[in-house]
Amino acid sequence: MLNTEKFIVTTETGFDALAAPWRQLETQVAHLLPFQTFDWNRAWWAVFSDSSWFHKDELAICTLYQEQQLVAVMPLTNTHVGLHNLFIYRYVRPFGADPNLTEIRVPLALPAYTETILQQWEDLSKQETFGLTEFQIIHTRQHAAHFLATNSAMHPLEARDIPNFILQLDTDWPNFKTGLKRNIKESLRHCYNSLARDNLQIKLQVWRGNAAVLQNINTFYALHGARAMAKNTVEHPDYFADDRHRAFILALLDSPFASRIILFGLELDGKTVAMRMAFAMGDELYLYYSGYDLQYAKYSIMTTLQAEIIQWGFTQGLKRINLSVGGDVSKTRWEPGVIDYAEYQCVKNSPWRRNLGKTILKVRKLRKSWSASKQE
């Protein structure tokens, strides 16, 4: 493409200078994800980047310009283990190496430049002169696989699928509900009938923006923590038990991203018994983490809250609801469409790097299995 220039930003000053063009690019991309925004990534770097004597995270934000306009950005961390330039191991991966706070870590790009921004992985692999570098490449399965198939300098060691489920709000709630399968229809009837039978009045609360969210965030954390203790269901950790994770949410609330944050609350007779955090992304709503009071589990209140949010989405004129990633039944039962992302662990394509990379992956899996067994 004519007049296309690429740069790698390596300083925080350069990072901050990207704010205006990055936010402008956000307005030009359809189906923007919260994790692609400047504010999410700037807050992430401020909270999660690490620097010590033998471990140092450095910025490697790949940018692409067309006639001086930012058309693609791919924020990467360049993590060295060792004495900086004399590192023994390096890991270059997208921002978001956290315990599932950043769920989808893909570049932000105008459609015509999706393949071009991925080519910067090839440039980064050529910079390796000493030690082993592991590269983590994440994109839609189609684009990531095509890039690796056409760039032999990168060797994939392992792949992981990341399904992302999307509900299209094409009609209205009655027609949407009519099109659902029998099991979810029966589940919805049970939810509402059981509440009516016990004379419990339902109200959906919608708290939006900095002040309203801050006022209710501790209730959300408490309900999320309660959800983590639930048995005989899909297990989820308490993601916000860690102080840094709460600090990250506060950093988002202290940025322009705060206008996107919504807390939905399901009230029964005035008591908040279930909550879900979500992000307003134009005509799309991204559903994030949730929690509920286990004393009300018999009413399937999370299903009720989900149904209430979908109905709210129709009233707001939303086009899509992003149910987030992971193939559990709480998502698939709504018969959503799916976007398949893929995560590849790669090394530079040489025999000793391939062999060493495979060994490191095996050791990492053994340590993970050992830690899991120790906790049981």
From TrEMBL:
<protein>
    <submittedName>
        <fullName>GNAT family N-acetyltransferase</fullName>
    </submittedName>
</protein>
<dbReference type="InterPro" id="IPR016181">
    <property type="entry name" value="Acyl_CoA_acyltransferase"/>
</dbReference>
<dbReference type="Pfam" id="PF13480">
    <property type="entry name" value="Acetyltransf_6"/>
</dbReference>
<dbReference type="InterPro" id="IPR038740">
    <property type="entry name" value="BioF2-like_GNAT_dom"/>
</dbReference>
<feature type="domain" description="BioF2-like acetyltransferase">
    <location>
        <begin position="185"/>
        <end position="327"/>
    </location>
</feature>
